[in-house]
Design brief:
The protein has one domain (about 30-195). The chain is built from four helices and eleven strands; from the N terminus they run H-E-E-E-E-E-E-E-E-H-E-E-E-H-H. It has helices spanning about 5-10, 120-125, 170-175, 185-195, and strands at about 30-40, 40-50, 55-60, 70-80, 90, 100-110, 115, 115-120, 130-135, 140-145, 155-160. About 15% of the residues lie in helices and about 40% in strands. The chain is mostly beta strands.
Amino acid sequence: MGTGDYAAKRDFERTPEPEGGKRRKGGKRPIFVVQEHDASQLHYDFRLEIDGVLKSWAVPKGPSTDPREKRLATPTEDHPLDYAEFEGVIPEGEYGAGTVLVWDTGAYENISEKDGEPIEAAEALKKGHLSVRLFGKKLEGGYTLVRMGDAADADWLLIKMRDDEADARRNPVSTEPESVLSGRTIEEIAQAAEDDG
């Protein structure tokens, strides 16, 4: 795991995205972040801190709070930890050009098991089945990522677990569009960047 692919795709003279290098002190729970990304196609990037990087998946429809909905999650390159606080506009001509908003963030707990025994998050990823409990501002409770196939670039599914936080009536992707960091919408972030232009 590393952020070499991330750095190779970006020109940090042009993009405001962080170069990386941030390290976290031990003892803290790992973090998750969901970033709304209005690129060539609007999607949500679901990221989990594992082994010093943000493991990342692009989720076209965003996370659901309904356990019956299985959301496609396409793996993307590992991102540096400081990307969790990135909000802004990636310029045209740069990889992932478009507006990024921090839609949700918080700590998470790895609850993955194999044969009734806990397993590390990195090992669960290798096995293709990772379960976590999120402690976010918009998303809470259990979520599972399940790989569809054995290929390294195989798509995954992001599925809400049936627990007290599951709610089939709630649709936070459409009803809660504001950033948890700035309170702005994706349109307001894009407009502010244009005004600063």
